Amino acid sequence: DAGVIQSPRHEVTEMGQEVTLRCKPISGHDYLFWYRQTMMRGLELLIYFNNNVPIDDSGMPEDRFSAKMPNASFSTLKIQPSEPRDSAVYFCATTTQGEFTNYGYTFGSGTRLTVV
Amino acid sequence: KNEVEQSPQNLTAQEGEFITINCSYSVGISALHWLQQHPGGGIVSLFMLSSGKKKHGRLIATINIQEKHSSLHITASHPRDSAVYICAVRSRYGNKLVFGAGTILRVKS
Question: What's the mean per-residue pLDDT of chain A?
Answer without folding.
Answer: 93
